[in-house]
Design brief:
The complex is a heterodimer of chains A (428) and B (949). With 428 residues, chain A is α+β, with helices and mostly antiparallel strands. Chain A folds into 3 domains: 149 residues, Beta-Lactamase (2-Layer Sandwich); 139 residues, Mu homology domain, subdomain B (Immunoglobulin-like), CATH 2.60.40.1170; 109 residues, Mu homology domain, subdomain B (Immunoglobulin-like), CATH 2.60.40. Chain A contains 7 helices and 23 strands. In chain A, the strands form 5 sheets. Chain A has a 9-stranded mixed sheet with strand order 11-13-9-8-23-21-16-19-18, with no helix packed on it. In chain A, a hairpin with a 4-residue loop joins strand 1 and strand 2. The two termini of chain A are 49 Å apart. Among the domains of chain B are: 224 residues, Leucine-rich Repeat Variant (Alpha Horseshoe); 105 residues; 135 residues, Immunoglobulin-like; 144 residues, TATA-Binding Protein (2-Layer Sandwich). In chain B, the strands form 3 sheets. In chain B, strands 1-2-3-6-5 form a 5-stranded antiparallel sheet, with no helix packed on it. Helices cover 49% and strands 10% of the residues of chain B. Chain B is built from 37 helices and 13 strands. Classes of the chains: A alpha+beta (428), B alpha+beta (949). Chain B: This is Beta-adaptin-like protein. Chain B: It comes from Gossypium davidsonii (Davidson's cotton).
């Protein structure tokens, strides 16, 4: 059951090795490079290639980030979920160190890269991926001191994500409740899928080792405590916590208690699969007069309460690739043809609740078409928006208690926002 | 925080190495550091800087941690190529392992473990022992993993030095990270050991479950994966375990979630209370769904696993089908997996919605995906009887939309194939009669051979119901010679069917044309043979022809790619691992081959192993595997335990002749040089018994000739010469055909030789036995006796292939074959186009069956090998062919694969072999038919040796 990676490769966009670390001595770089180069050549588009590939006794798993591939090779039956997730974590670590993970930054910092590869994995087993703590004892040149480094306590502590002795003059916590609405509407106008994925994003600037307790309007908790719910209590369906949250405690009495990492992190994510009314409904009628022009009429309607307002609304309506000479009129906001996306982009800075706006557009089509042409991808209408001070789920932070032995007072700031996630409406 | 290391990559072209050498030996610390960086940069871009070994190692003694790390890195890379110089580093390593700074102590042990050089390994033990008991948990956690490294290099050393015990102690360590790494190390060691090393008692179990709450996310994965090997004693314990695992479902790390799911599913097997099980299923659903919001690569792994989970527990996600609907931007590999799961979750309740989705996908652009989507509709039709009509009508709508040619072709093919499959299941034409009419209209768009063949099958099968069946077939016949073989075969059969159903003039003419085409104007033996058989049948006995051609068809059912239950259970025990991604048991792709020795220097010859001279004996090296899908195997022949006849208590002078009862002519002096190299042979006379003389030997076959391959090693203090050999009477009359050629052996020397052998010299009476008694003598020592085993496969001759032509002459036998074909062979034929490639060459089939059946049943002997697993049919064929066991045919029976082979042993005794197995699962049934069934036990031994991995 056990299994470990044999080596970790960082490859450039053409599949050539930038840096690699051999953990077990049973694969060779040249072989892996040859294989991978062949693979991406063959596929053309590596994004369509399965992320797990078997070749000649070796399994390759990879993820891509900008112009770098991160790939592991293994000869064993190792935990694929763990390795792939680890690769994504490695991306985060590099991003923390070099701001951007790309070919150049890896080359520019290869010494640190080697050091990190030595620390994050040992004999092919993932070891430690807390970027913040790693940077306490593996530093880039600019920050390197001559003092000999010691492993921070945190590396092996039960609280592996926070170092001791942090000090702030002003102790503050910022808590953003961000809900993304995912929706998929089919061409008949039926909602075939909708869910809300929420995240509690925290930024902590707290001294010492603060003990935090978060109270939400969680129905299970409130009912267990026998409280009469004033206002709305909500059912959170699938909650995922940052590793700092004591899971066993939550399982017992639904208390969310934790010692937070320093800086920003996602405290928890949750999902609600209850059917939600689409916040912004878009209908489009496309009339294609073949070989001359195409007429598009778009109606956008806001379906939330009037006191809320969506900002930065962006509606992308797909148009044929060979369309030209746009003629667009919008009753609100600005609209422009974006040929690079084969779409008509309609932007509305502020969209109050209960309103409906229209847009008409006309494009010219070429009079000759290629009979053999492959058909175009049928892209859906896609919508982006943000609605501040509003959550679909009605989640509320009832309290955030922060207790530290020095007894300081910390200020929690809470913000709510709802935004569009994968918000797709298929065209007829 | 950006660095400027890239400057180290730029080099002055001329004299780079000498320049670096100079800088490495510079007085200035900074200059040395820069130089090491340049060396590492050169190493990174693949330049060979191993010649700087001594100079770099000289920089190792430094206070500068960064520099030290770089030197260590260099050592990991090049110590292997400079093993003698690596010893230079040992002192510093040992010193560093006692450094006051834990970071350096850990670094030293970690690095030493990565250097796979014996000299370093020897010195690793003491520091490792210390570090396992270090005060600092960071050092202990590193040391724990280091034990696994050492075990990988030298398992004996780990056991002898008691590291396993120290490692087990670490499970009770107070630091969770140390516990997690110890668990990972123990689990890995257990994996490679047959002895129980890491047993999880209820005490360790509760310890580990406690550590689970405190260790890092990766540590949690190690512990959960290790725990999934242990099963609870009873339902109550299982419930307790599950209770402590369930909080992990809330973890943000997907790997933790999946491993927890694995653990819960395994324990659920023991829980009998339906309420508890239902409750657990309810708990697992949301986390599984949430995995689909992860990164696409993780989604892929999750989907492959969910595919398994829904096969075992369909209720978990029965109501969640919508989450598997494809999004516009999903990568294609995610879409494909989602499609599979949608089919699995499709039910009468949700089929309308699912069909709507499939229809949407069918109008996408990616042809592969479109094809799969259309096929998915077909599979739903087969799976859900009541929805079949709706599925078919969706397919028809798709045809009517006539989106474009590319897609059109993509739809027609699965449509026709689906329809054919449906007809084969339900035999209910009226339901689909209208469709056939529509299909016939789009005949011109049928380009794909598979679709064409399916359509022709439909026409032939329902010739009596389709009014213009003859016209339709005739239109195909015009292009008969140009059609691919698959279509030709189907046309031939369909025409015969048409003729048998409507024996009128038109079809009669058609049949003439077809038979003529298929017998005279074709080179394809399959087609020709099938045509001949039909011809003969039709001309001799049309009624018999009807029985054969229009025979009842076998029932097929939708498999929806369902896995065999036992395989499914094995895969579920491997959730989250590669095994669950591939849907293959780990043995099928994990290579046990130790390739530790091949590192950078032999990159270009990744599988380079010495060319053994005896190709027939399974040699120990990994054979280079060419195809990327075939699983490489190591024909590792375990040296059989040496069986040694007790040496006579007192020296017996010149006993050879007396004992064996033969004239001494066969004893031949040895004085010619022997061959020095070759694969290892089993030791038959260990040095301890042979007063320092060690003899290893084995029968081998080379170029059609049998040899006795011998290896003599002289570990005694005196030179040995005058070697002679003698064989006792044996079942096959094996005897030496020439002199034994072994040079005088100085102390410490070894020699190898190939002794040619002959058969049928002095045969022992009685039932065949594999015993081969050998006596060897030399001028200095008493006579040594030892036993060897005769492996039957060395007798398999190169002419053992059952030649089709030689059997074709036996025309009269054809009738038997045909009767057999009528019942048995119609199956592979009809199914052929539907179930992909099936090597069903009629002639070979018939030959096989004729020969098989011409031998009486009493000559058939059967034996099961529960321990043997066939990873892939091709490897097995290759492996057997290497030993002159020749592949004849293959067929599928239910989920089993049946392979037929032939072999021949001297005196022309044929062996027919039938292997039945489920590919990828352990368990192999071997049946053999031969005129000499008493050979069977020997034969089975040989097969076992050949197939054991």
């Amino acid at each position: 059951m056990a299994g470990a990676a044999s080596a970790l490769f960082l490859l450039d966009i053409k599949g050539r090795v930038l840096v690699w670390r051999d953990y077990r001595g049973d694969v060779s770089a040249a072989q892996a490079e040859r294989f991978f180069t062949k693979l991406i050549e063959k596929e053309g588009d590596p994004q369509s290639q399965d992320p797990v590939v078997y070749d000649n006794g070796v399994t390759y798993m990879f993820v891509q980030h900008s112009n770098v591939y991160l790939m592991t090779a293994t000869r064993q039956n190792c935990n694929a979920a763990s390795i792939l997730f680890f690769l994504h974590r490695v991306v985060d670590v590099f991003k923390h160190y070099f701001e951007e993970l790309e070919e150049e930054s890896l080359r520019d910092n290869f010494v640190v890269v080697y050091e990190l590869l030595d620390e994050i994995m040992d004999f092919g087993y993932p070891q430690y991926t807390e970027a913040k703590i790693l940077s306490e004892f593996i530093k880039t040149d600019a920050y390197r001191m001559e003092v000999t480094q010691r492993p921070p306590m945190a590396v092996t502590n039960a609280v592996s994500w926070r170092s001791e002795g942090i000090n702030y003059k002003k102790n503050e916590v910022f808590l953003d409740v961000v809900e993304s609405v995912n929706i998929l509407v089919n061409s008949n106008g039926q909602i075939i899928r909708s869910d809300v994925v929420g995240a509690l994003k925290m930024r902590t600037y707290l001294s010492g080792m603060p003990e935090c307790k978060l109270g939400l309007n969680d129905r299970v908790l409130l009912e267990a405590q026998g409280r009469v719910t004033k206002g709305k209590a909500i059912d959170l369906e699938d909650i995922k916590f940052h590793q700092c949250v004591r899971l066993a405690r939550f399982e017992n009495d639904r208390t969310i208690s934790f010692i937070p990492p320093d800086g920003s992190f996602d405290l928890m994510t949750y999902r609600l699969s209850t059917q939600v009314k689409p916040l912004i409904w878009v209908e489009a009628q496309v009339e294609k007069h073949s070989r001359s022009r195409v007429e598009i009429m778009v109606k956008a309607r806001s379906q939330y309460k009037e006191r809320s307002t969506a900002t930065n609304v962006e509606i992308a309506v797909p148009v044929p690739t060979d369309a030209s000479s746009p003629n667009i009129r919008a009753s609100m906001g600005s609209a422009a043809y974006a040929p690079e996306n084969d779409a008509l982009m309609w932007k509305i800075r502020s969209f109050p609740g209960g309103k409906e706006y229209m847009l008409r557009a006309e494009f010219t089509l070429p009079s000759i078409t290629d009979e053999e042409a492959t058909p175009e991808r049928k892209a859906p209408i896609r919508v982006k928006f943000e609605i501040p001070y509003f959550t679909v789920s009605g989640i509320q932070v009832r309290y955030l208690k922060i207790i530290e032995k020095s007894g300081y007072q910390a200020l929690p700031w809470v913000r709510y926002i709802t935004m569009a996630g994968e918000y797709e409406l298929r065209l007829i | 925080m950006s660095g400027h290391d890239s400057k180290y990559f730029s080099t002055t072209k001329k004299g780079e190495i000498p320049e670096l050498k100079e800088e490495l030996n510079s007085q200035h610390r900074d200059k040395r550091k820069d130089a090491v960086k340049k060396v590492i940069a050169a190493m990174t871009v693949g330049k060979d800087v191993s010649s700087l070994f001594t100079d770099v190692v000289n920089c190792m003694q430094t206070e500068n941690l960064e520099l030290k790390k770089l030197v260590y890195l260099y050592l990991i890379n090049y110590a292997k190529s400079q093993p003698d110089l690596a010893i230079l580093a040992v002192n510093t390593f040992v010193k560093d392992s006692q450094d006051p700074n834990p970071l350096i102590r850990a670094l030293a042990v970690r690095t030493m473990g990565c250097i796979r050089v014996d000299k370093i390994t020897e010195y690793l033990c003491d520091p490792l022992q210390r570090c396992l008991k270090d005060d600092d948990p960071y050092v202990r956690k590193t040391a724990a993993v280091c034990v696994a490294k050492l075990y990988d290099i030298n398992a004996e050393l780990v056991e002898d030095r008691g590291f396993l015990e120290s490692l087990k102690d670490l499970i009770s360590d107070n630091n969770p990270m140390v516990v997690a790494n110890a668990v990972a190390a123990l689990a890995e060691i257990q994996e490679h050991s047959s002895r129980p090393i890491f047993e999880i008692t209820s005490h360790t179990l509760s310890k580990l479950l406690t550590a689970l709450n405190e260790c890092t996310e990766w540590g949690q994965v190690f512990i959960l994966d290790a725990l999934s090997r242990c099963k609870a004693a009873d339902a109550r314990e299982a419930e307790n375990i599950v209770e402590r695992i369930t909080p992990r479902l809330q973890h943000a790390n997907c790997a933790v979630v999946l491993s927890a799911v694995k653990m819960i599913l395994l324990q659920m097997e023991l829980i009998s209370s339906t309420d508890v099980v239902r409750n657990l299923c309810k708990k697992m659903a949301p986390p599984l769904v949430t995995l689909l919001s992860a990164e696409p690569e993780i989604q892929y792994v999750a989907l492959r696993n969910i595919n398994l989970i829904v096969q075992k527990r369909p209720t978990i996600l029965a109501h969640e089908i919508k989450v598997f609907f494809c999004k516009y931007n999903d990568p294609i590999y995610v879409k494909m997996e989602k499609l599979e799961i949608m089919i699995k979750l499709a039910s009468d309740r949700n089929i309308d919605q699912v069909l709507l989705e499939f229809k949407e996908y069918a109008t996408e652009v990616d042809v592969d995906f479109v094809r799969r989507a259309v096929r998915a509709i077909g599979r739903c039709a087969i799976k859900l009887d009541r929805a079949a009509e709706r599925c078919i009508s969706v397919l028809l709508e798709l045809i009517k939309i006539k989106v474009n040619y590319v897609v059109q072709e993509a739809i027609i093919k699965p449509l026709v194939c689906t329809l054919k499959a449906l007809l084969m299941i339900y035999y209910d034409l009226p339901r689909y009669e209208s469709i056939i009419a529509t299909l016939c209209e789009s005949l011109d768009t049928l380009d794909e051979p598979e679709a064409k063949a399916s359509m022709i099958w439909i026409i032939g099968e329902y010739a009596e119901r389709i009014d213009n069946a003859d016209e339709l077939l005739e239109s195909f016949l015009e292009s008969f010679p140009e059609e691919p073989p698959q279509v030709q075969l189907q046309l031939l059969t369909a025409t015969v069917k048409l003729f048998l159903k409507k024996p009128t003039e038109g079809p009669q003419q058609m049949i003439q044309v077809v038979l003529n085409n298929a017998t005279v104007e074709t080179d394809n033996p399959d087609l020709r043979d099938r045509a001949y058989i039909y011809w003969r049948l039709l001309s001799t006995d049309p009624e018999a022809a009807k029985d054969v051609v229009l025979a009842e068809k076998p029932v097929i059912s939708d498999d929806s790619n369902q896995l065999d239950p036992s395989l499914l259970d094995e895969l579920l025990a491997n959730i989250a691992t590669l095994s669950s991604v591939y849907h293959k048991p780990p043995d099928a792709f994990v290579t046990r081959a130790k390739t530790a020795s091949q590192r950078t220097e032999d990159d270009d010859y990744p599988d380079g192993n010495e060319k053994g001279y005896s190709a027939n004996v399974g040699d120990g090296g990994a054979s280079p595997s060419t195809s990327s899908s075939s699983v490489p195997y190591t024909a590792a022949r375990q040296p059989s335990p040496a069986q040694v006849m007790p040496a006579p208590a007192s020296p017996v002078p010149d006993l050879l002749g007396d004992l064996i009862g033969l004239d001494n002519n066969a004893i031949v002096p040895a004085d010619q040089p022997a061959m020095p190299s070759g694969p290892p042979l089993p030791i038959l006379l260990p040095a301890s018994t042979g007063q320092g003389l060690q003899i290893s030997a084995q029968l081998a076959r080379q170029d059609g000739q049998i040899f006795y391959s011998l290896m003599f090693e002289n570990n005694s203090q005196i030179t040995l010469d005058g070697f002679m050999i003698q064989f006792n009477k044996n079942s096959f009359g094996l005897a030496a055909a020439g002199p034994l050629q072994v040079p005088p052996l100085a102390p410490g020397a070894a020699a190898r030789t190939l002794l040619p052998m002959v058969l049928f010299q002095n045969m022992s009476p009685g039932p065949p036995s594999s015993l081969l008694q050998v006596a060897v003598k030399n001028n200095q020592q008493p006579v040594w006796y030892f036993n060897d085993k005769i492996l039957l496969h060395v007798f398999f001759s190169e002419d053992g292939r059952m030649e089709r032509t030689s059997f074709l002459e036996v025309r009269s036998l054809f009738h038997i074959a045909l009767v057999y074909c009528g019942t048995e062979l119609s199956k592979p034929y009809i199914m052929k186009d539907h179930t992909a490639e099936r090597s069903s060459s009629m002639s070979i089939w018939s030959v096989m069956f004729v020969t098989w059946r011409s031998l009486p049943d009493s000559n058939e002997v059967l034996k099961e090998f529960p321990g043997i697993m066939v990873g892939s049919a091709e490897t097995t064929m290759d492996r057997l062919a290497a030993s002159n066991v020749f592949f004849i045919a293959k067929r599928k029976h239910a989920n089993q694969d049946v392979l037929y082979f032939s072999a021949k042993i001297p005196r022309g005794i044929p062996l027919l072999i039938e292997l039945t197995t489920v590919i990828g699962n352990p368990g192999l049934k071997c049946a053999t038919k031969t005129p000499n069934p008493e050979l069977a036990p020997l034969f089975f031994e040989a097969i076992e040796t050949l197939l054991k991995i």
